[in-house]
Model the fold of this input.
Amino acid sequence: MATLLSSSPSSLLFTTLSPPSLPSLSLSSLSLSSTSSISSSASSISLSHRSLSFSSKRPSYSAFAVKASAAEKKKVLIVNTNSGGHAVIGFYFAKELLASGHDVTVLTVGDEASDKMKKPPFTRFSEIVEGGGKTVWGNVDAIGTVLEGLTFDVVLDNNGKDLDAVKPVADWAKSSGAGQFLFISSAGMYKATEEPPHVEGDTVKADAGHAGVEKYISESFGNWASFRPQYMIGSGNNKDCEEWFFDRIVRGRPVPIPGSGMQLTNISHVRDLSSMLTKAVENPSAASGNVFNCVSDRAVTLDGMAKLCAKAAGLPVEIVHYDPKSIGSDAKKAFPFRNMHFYAEPRAAKDVLGWKSSTNLPEDLKERYEEYVKIGRDKKTMKFDIDDKILESLKAPVAA
Amino acid sequence: MAGSSVAAVQHNFKHYPSLSLLPSSHSTFCGTKFITSIQYKRKVCQPKGALNVMASSSKKILVMGGTRFIGIFLSRLLVEEGHQVTLFTRGKAPVTQPLPGEADDAYNAFKSKILHLKGDRKDYDFVRTSLAAEGFDVVYDINGREAEEVEPILDALPNLEQYIYCSSAGVYLKSDLLPHREVDAVDPKSRHKGKLETEALLESKGVNYTSIRPVYIYGPLNYNPVEEWFFHRLKAGRPIPIPNSGLQVTQLGHVKDLATAFIKVLGNAKASKQVYNISGDRYVTFDGLARACAKAGGFPEPELIHYNPKEFDFGKKKAFPFRDQHFFASVEKAKEELGIVPEYGLVEGLTDSYNLDFGRGTFRKAADFSTDDIILGKSLVLS
Done:
């Protein structure tokens, strides 16, 4: 009953619920022993209890095939970044682990009172608590103090981009006896290729900070794995992805895409990343020593993404191509995706973990658009200074 | 055991890329093991995950076609495995021809065993009577284009064990989401709709069929100017004109890997009524392909010229041998279900093709740079 498989795109995952007594049904009371049979029955007890109370509030649960995991219950620490595209990974992962019956602590880097906490997914961290998890804040340099007395089976660093940031976490994890160390790396470390896709084992940029981390953890831990994501969509995202397209489409503005628009990329629903990580936690020996491209198993072109967003919105789209050199230094800020083929495939996860992708962009984007409108972002006043510059340079008229 | 034999095959291949194509002492198809112990060792060469081939007994196999490209390699493998192989062709191409670099005795052994049924497959009455008279266990349909061509074959062979069809990834509906997977939408209006209709017919007839969808096939003896197109220009020291951005992603599959895949589905219950994409396990951009061909032939890095095809009128000629779009398919299904893994990387495979074919001075189509010259502005009108 443990694993959430999200084949149903119907409803938003993890909608807020108000469970009256879930915290009291704390998993610690069910952690009688660590044998798998008890933990699976414990999971089934806890989940069936939850489904009794909450099935009406969480219809999406019953739509998912929930598998009994033969894995024992794990104590997992997620060290989570406080901003950026990867922030949402820890959020989904925490909730999936909790739903699978594991014990979860999320250490968000920085200060709980920081302004950064006013953005999703942090604004929804109560869902982690309601799911039975703990959320704490602190700096990685003081991790030993922040987590004093606590031990974990698994530590995921979803924060650092280089060894400076990860080393304190890795060293503490090792000294406190964590059996498995997981790292959210980046598919950006692959060297550009004319023979896509990026496959695990391909040459990476030697000077990439993430490469340094992977090397260090591979030397420090008997059981380690690294996950290289690309771009993500999903409710609770800290960084715009599809929103960039919706912003323009919904206002009838042309969508300026650099180059030919043929560039391939990989845009995954974050639930795919979460499920891959969960598989690694529940199959540690299989996962050990591996690098995993943490992505969906389809590429989409930049033009294709614009078209899919428009289709999801039920609106037309006008794509305009431009040469990024013509706008100079603004080029980087002008467009949220790399102007090149950037496409990794999740071959190791499929081979090694038996993982399957569930991202379905056409369907998932519909859901994303619904939320986009629901939160009123379509009505928000926005400026498109760089777009205007681009369009001016192309002398393309701007729709009113 | 299976794992180590696959490793051995790859090892042998990598060190002897330009030797005899045939599995003699250096096996690219696990040939040696087959020759010495057909009855018992067939399984040895199945990589992890493949179902063991059902029967090690010899089958009576009909190949529709088999004398031009894919079939040349496939028929050799089949003969080596001990099957009785008949090629059905009009006889326009020689029934057998030695492969470049093939040892005389190997060729003669093959030649002595291969059978020929001469006829026009579009003469449906002839197909019916001749096939019924012979009786075959398995049909490999390598050159079928239209569904109606298949009917007489099925009529003539009611006890057919398996119909193995060479379809095409060209049947997939163009999509913004790639790679193409076997479950994806197909295009009933595509140029390859005959292949789709054939697959549908096979499905509807309830026959045990397996359909293979290759992408672009390359390798020695290719009659489609895929690599040859680049080699001509590289040899002539000409720039390579590539339409639009050159970022279009395509995919090439070596003919020997395709032949191996065709062998692996033979008698494989898992492959029953299944469709498989078969090609290389990496994709490549148009620009990248030009550079890979240069590497393969030992040419210096070529000058690539990008042009907008809409600005030119090439008449009936094709200015570039690939569809001007992304076109690639996932080969995961064959890998996961049947353990089929391509052996050739792109540069490796192009080198094999160059060393055994173009590099020896052989090619199918003579160089024609007329469209290049239009693009390069050397002439304004196609004469």
Summary: The radius of gyration of chain A is 21 Å. Confidence is low (pLDDT under 50) at residues 1-68 of chain A. Chain A is about 35% helix and 15% strand.
